Amino acid sequence: xxxxxxxxxxxxxxxxxxxxxxKGFVRSFQYFGKRLVRLAASPHSVAAGFAAGIVVxxxxxxxxHFVMAIIIAYLVGGNVIASALGCLAAGNPxxxxxxxxxxxxxxxxxxxxxxxxxxxxxDLPALWHKGDLSQIWDPVLKPMLIGGIPxxxxxxxxxxxxxxxxxxxxxxxxxxxxxxxxxxxxxLAENASSV
Length: 195
Hints:
mainly alpha, DUF2062, transmembrane helix, membrane, DUF2062 domain-containing protein, transmembrane
């Protein structure tokens, strides 16, 4: 293989590379942003899809985030790939603990409950193991779901606006560069044919 390492990485080195990349996270974010703005869709479609993925990440239903994002993106005319990228950007193992804590607290504020004593009297792992969602709904899922609505709306609107104008600017500049190159090629072709 042309680009294979001479000395393969050990398991420990691979694990470290996944958790903390050698070149840092800036390069990953830059690649992610370029991947988003280069999608072959309208700025509204990309922004709506990306915002749908971000909004869905505020819900406590982890196993179905991608499905929910695709459905919402379809309903609002968003790009399906952008919705998946939105899910990956906002909902990942690094951000989930913060999302859950924030939605839990906001949910208890909205429902006017005391969050301190509410979660201490249930055995959450045992209830998850039994699969008894009816007992988990009121003390855990309901506050998290209701608490996720305000941040989902705020982040959805902000992300939509930023993504829309970012994609629109990128596509406009790209179109101008392509038109300039086409003019240059046309001028070169005319000069070559006149000689």
